[in-house]
Structures are given as C-alpha cells and as structure tokens.
Amino acid sequence: SYVLTQPPSVSVAPGQTARITCGGNNIGSKSVHWYQQKPGQAPVLVVYDDSDRPSGIPERFSGSNSGNTATLTISRVEAGDEADYYCQVWDSSSVVFGGGTKLTVL
Amino acid sequence: QVTLKESGPVLVKPTETLTLTCTVSGFSLSNARMGVSWIRQPPGKALEWLAHIFSNDEKSYSTSLKSRLTISKDTSKSQVVLTMTNMDPVDTATYYCARIRPYYDILTGYYIGAFDIWGQGTMVTVSS
Fold first, then answer.
1. Label partner for A76 (CA 20 to 30 A): which of A27, B29, B61, B123?
2. How close does chain A come to B17, measured CA to CA in Å?
3. For residue B66, which phi and psi values (nearest 5 degrees)?
C-alpha cells in the first residue's frame, strides 16, 4: 500500500516561512491535498490538487509537488497557524493520509 | 451553507456493532459528482480513512478494515450510514464524515478529490 511520510514536527518563528514536506514514491504523479487541524477541531482543507486554495484560505498558504516530495509552504507565519497538518492522496480507489506534522510557532 | 453532522453512540462494548449516521445539508447526495467519506482519528493519532460512497452508489473501503465495514446512503433522508462490526478498544476514536466532489483522473482511471467540508466529528469509546 502507498505510504506518505511527514516530519513529526516543524518549528518556525512568527513572520518566517514554514515548509512541511510529504514524501511518497513518485508522489509528483498524484494530486496532493493538505489539511489543517487545530486542537479539538475538525480538519480544514487548506490546499487541494497540489497548489490550489479553497475560498477563504489566505494566500500565505501554498503548495508544490514534484518527484517524491510534496510541500506545503506557509509564508509570514502567524501564531494562529499553529496546528497539525496532514497531506492526503488517492491510491487507486483508496485514500491515504500522511502521519501529520505539528507546526509550532515559536 | 453546506454542513455535515455525525451522530451515533458515545460508548459501545467490545464485539458490538457500531452504527454511525452522517446527516448532510446544503447539497444533495443524488447530485452528480458528489460523495461522502468516513474518516477516524484515535486520540493523539493521525487521520485514517475508512470508506466512501459516491452519488452513483460506487463504494470503496479501507483494505485493512474492509471485512468489518459497510457504507450506505439514504438520499431521501440526506444521510450516509457506516456500520463497523466487532468493535475493539483500539477502535476508540473520533469519527468524521467529510464531503468529496470527485473528478475523473485520466491517469489512474479512478475518481478522486479533496475533502472540502468536514463534520464536527463524534467521539466513540469502546469499553466494557
């Protein structure tokens, strides 16, 4: 089965840029979606189809996908961005989530 | 406004069958290119996809849990129901339903898409 690998944690100072990676075999050939989950809340879609943003998601959130790594980039990080982030792809007719990355804003 | 809301028991005993209902509003389960998935999250752990059902009644299940899961929909009630048999304490988790608007992926020949709207989740504890 397909496996997505995320770093358990990423730390960044306010105003800096956070990059959260999602590794998978030839993931560049798949569409990657990213979700933000704050404590006690349901996940929220922040990037879909590698790099598109749903309405209402700030432009600070962007995504890229190539080769064996997809990346969620959060520019000008704010305290409110502190959350768990999950990547997701489809493997045939099944869904795969990454293990999640906890973003800490220092 | 599109919403999904999960409902079901808070506590189930080991070996019992869990039945969860997702009631949707703001869209119809009979609309073309619409679907609902069930996803769970054990306390402190990652998201795990369980199953989905599309408007054309196409269904798919997690390979590891397929023998225990059944997903169905009642379009007239705007509900998607998930049953999971033989519950175990390791199944203790928050269970979410989420909407998909699938599109055809010409590379794989499957319908895919992101989960654009999620329910608030319902916590289920398995304990005797």
1. A27
2. 23
3. -55, -40
* Whether B114 and A88 lie within 8 Å, measured CB to CB: yes
Q: Are B108 and A92 in contact (CB under 8 A)?
A: yes
pLDDT band at B1 (very low <50, low <70, confident <90, very high): very high
Closest CA to B115 of A40, A28, A88, A63: A88
Q: Which position has the token pair 């389960």? A: B29
Mean pLDDT computed over every residue of chain A:
97
Q: Which residues of A touch B107 (CB under 8 A)?
A: 29
> Of B25, B2, B13, B34, whose CA–CA distance to B91 is shortest?
B13
Distance CA B45, CA A8 (A): 11
- Chain B nearest CA to A13, separation (Å): 24
Region A26-44: what's the mean pLDDT? 97
pLDDT in the model for residue B109: 85
Tens-digit pLDDT profile for residues B23-57: 999 999 998 889 999 999 999 999 999 999 999 99
DSSP string covering B85-128:
-S--GGG-EEEEEEEE--EEETTTTEEE--EEEE---EEEEE--
Sign, Cα dihedral of A4, A5, A8, A10: negative
Place of tokens 């990037």: A47
Are B116 and A97 within 8 A, CB to CB? no
Task: Assess contact for B37 and B52: CB atoms under 8 A.
Answer: yes
